[in-house]
């Protein structure tokens, strides 16, 4: 079927075609949406996406209403990803879908919750939020009559799994973070059903979503850290890019109050990083070496990302945030208590499946430990921060005050 002109934007030959390679369960095409517009809509309407509203990044919900959650972060990433994709003549809808889906597998309490659940699951294959995202969109969401999951297009699943690069070498040897742990079972199980070509890079659209995630993190973590009083604008002068931008703001708007200065800083960080990514991508695509999406996958390195100079600036921002925000004493106090909630929930539910809701108990009678542990991990990973605390209170008659 031809895709209507009204829903197709100009794209380069290096972009993913608007019509997918296919879905695991074949479906007739939509007369009004491309495959990736359809995927984006399914992600937005999923239960897992709505839960992101009450899953935090660094702070928990008690800290205030203005800090980022996984939901607001995902929306910010989607906006940045679309901007990059539009400038590079990519498929904006695929980039947006991947940006909106990239955090679906995260646990409550941010990376603290993931680390705690991974440790609890270590004897049973561990926990990986990327693999959990795949489980959600291929199995755990149960909304449709004809299939489990969301039955997303091949390109969307590929980008969701490989947005950070190849997972295995051509000979199947795990790469990167998976060298010591192996490829998560959820990814291998799905790979047996539909080959996601784990040895290649993902599309340029997936690369745009991945770098958009980095850009959003840098800007909003500085914003949230300033808002929380973990550091001040003057402290950021040790970060070269930030110092340069603060000097620009001071020269253009002398005497500007600190709140507006902070907002100007966020805007300029995002703009500078996005412009760098677009410049690098344009140089790559205008070289004429990449005449198809598969050429991008076979390039041997990411084509959409930071230049070497900006990669250093990105690293400097993260080097500042690590001790001053992620490991700040106030944050660490919350992290320790939050990790204890996750561990307590896992141990109690693993050893007492009757404490699970009835629908989560189905099929566990007589099941081995691996299946029981994975079911408990699925249940906990789907919790919001507030629900995890509520469940802890239900099962232990208490919950820590995460302030």
TrEMBL record:
GO MF annotation list: dGTPase activity
HD domain sequence ranges: 70-218
The keyword Hydrolase appears for this protein: yes
Keyword line: Hydrolase
InterPro entries: dGTPase, dGTPase-like, dNTPase_2, HD/PDEase_dom, HD_domain, PHydrolase_assoc_dom
SMART domains: HDc
NCBIfam families from the UniProt entry: dGTP_triPase (TIGR01353), PRK01286.1-1 (NF002326), PRK01286.1-3 (NF002328)
Protein name as it appears in the record: Deoxyguanosinetriphosphate triphosphohydrolase-like protein
